[in-house]
Automatic annotation (TrEMBL):
Keywords: Oxidoreductase. SUPFAM superfamilies: NAD(P)-binding Rossmann-fold domains (SSF51735). Belongs to the short-chain dehydrogenases/reductases (SDR) family. The lineage of its organism: Eukaryota, Viridiplantae, Streptophyta, Embryophyta, Tracheophyta. This is Short-chain dehydrogenase. It holds the Pfam family adh_short. InterPro entries: NAD(P)-bd_dom_sf, SDR_fam.
Length: 443
């Protein structure tokens, strides 16, 4: 059954777009980096400098976002040789289960009184749902909010003396990561907060909780570093409670709203503060882009016969990059924001669970080929470009870090389209304002 689903997946054009286009764009990025470093005189390397040395603040606050917990329901294929549950490649009927937290879900499962909000595909009939629930074997697929790249960055910055704030959907997973960091680093300051980046209300609640925690902890009510690291690759169209595409909402709209809400705290910092947006080389595959409300929210993709997940991922990462450059320009114009810098960081290909919705045999093959080509990195190596962005001199802003060793690269030509970036900013700000007003009305 798993093999058949993998073969069906293999026949889809979106998979081959990932396999071919993404690999080519990655190789071209490294060739451009090589040419810029060894053949061009314009190459500039940024040395790392410490943000901890200032006496104006006791511990710099760093916020790292991660993907939320997804609980998938479907039929189990049994157990593998190491005891793990064998999961099917995709569930054709049920998209996901939305629970409160991983700990709550597992505790409730034990007592067999689980109440779940099940979101079904729009084409699923009630009869099909009831029939499926009668015969289905339930399993849970937890996706840690700060696994892979996020966990590696968290550990590195906690070791350097940052007070690290982990923000993600699964408070249980986040708390586990925080505990592991504290076990390895004696004086580590790590705090976990629950937030769903696809929900404005959740982001707003996180901001209020963060401010209260800073006051209770006798810390300066400001933020020195925000790393927008959250990102998912969803292979099916899913709509959020705010009627947006889940992938676009998590990869772009959520980070946009979070940054807008936290900008006052970044501006209040007594030392230079920074926003680091973790983007991807896949943005280079977007050749044109139209800014409308439907495209920004991702609602336009629901009208297509099949969900173009590779295109949507590329689009969301280009939006994040355009947002980075436009925020850099906006910050430069604002007098009170002159000490806030904005940087994009591209870790390249890192072995994480980003391809968790791709059939396991195909994702394994992809990682194997990338490893043979020397393009696959571990999270510990992949974080170098992110750390380069974090530790670049305070005056550094509006640049794209790639390849480690303090190296920067020019992103795609489309990403430097200032009119497109301004249109995207205006349209996104309108969505942000509408959600802000709606949140006030409900409270």
């Amino acid at each position: 059954m798993g093999l058949m689903e993998a073969l069906i997946f293999l026949c889809k054009g979106q998979f081959w777009r990932m396999a071919v286009f993404w690999t080519v764009s990655l190789i071209l990025s490294y060739l451009q980096l090589f040419s810029q470093t060894h053949l061009s005189r314009k190459s500039k390397l940024f040395d790392r400098c410490s943000s901890i040395s200032s006496s104006a603040i006791r511990k710099p606050i760093c916020i790292i976002t991660g993907s939320y917990l997804i609980l998938v329901v479907g039929k189990s294929d049994g157990l593998s040789s190491n005891g793990d549950i064998k999961l099917p490649c995709q569930s054709p009927v049920i998209d996901e289960i939305v629970g409160s937290s991983q700990a709550d879900v597992f505790d409730t499962l034990k007592s067999a009184t689980l109440r779940l909000w099940i979101k079904f595909n729009s084409k699923t009939s009630t009869t099909t749902v009831l029939a499926l629930l009668d015969r289905v074997t339930w399993y849970l697929l937890p996706v840690q909010a700060t696994s892979g790249l996020g966990a590696a960055v968290s550990y590195a910055l906690a070791k350097e003396g940052y007070c690290v704030i982990l923000a993600g959907r699964s408070l249980h997973s986040l708390s586990k990561v925080a505990s592991e960091i504290k076990e390895q680093i004696d004086d580590a300051c790590v705090k976990a907060f629950q937030v769903d980046l696809s929900s404005y209300k959740s982001i707003l609640s996180f901001k209020h909780s963060l401010q209260q925690w800073l006051l209770d902890s006798d810390l300066h009510c400001s933020v020195q570093l925000l790393i927008n690291n959250a990102g998912i690759l969803a292979t099916s169209y899913r709509v959020t409670t705010e009627q947006c595409d889940q992938m676009v909402s998590t990869n772009y709209i959520g980070p946009f709203c979070l940054t807008k809400l936290l900008l006052p705290l970044l501006e209040q910092s007594p030392i230079p503060s920074r926003v680091v947006n973790v983007t991807s080389f896949t943005h280079r595959n977007v050749s044109s882009m139209e800014v409308t409300r439907e495209t920004i929210s991702g609602q336009w993709f629901s009208k297509l016969s099949s969900y173009p997940y590779a295109h949507v991922y590329e689009y969301s990462k280009l939006c994040l990059l355009l947002f980075t450059y436009e925020l850099h320009r906006q910050v430069g114009l604002a007098e009170k924001s002159h000490s806030v810098s904005v940087i994009a960081a591209d870790p390249g290909v890192v072995k994480t669970n980003i391809m968790r919705e791709i059939p396991s045999c195909l994702s394994w093959l992809a990682f194997f080929v990338l490893k043979l080509l020397g393009l696959l990195q571990s999270p510990e190596v992949g974080i170098t470009s992110v750390l380069d962005a974090v530790h670049a001199p305070p005056e550094t802003s509006g640049v794209y870090f790639f390849g480690g060793n303090g190296r920067t690269l020019r992103s795609s030509q489309l990403s430097y389209n200032s009119k497109l970036a301004k249109d995207l900013w205006d349209a996104s700000s309108q969505i942000f304002l509408e959600r802000q007003l709606a949140s006030r009305d409900t409270t």
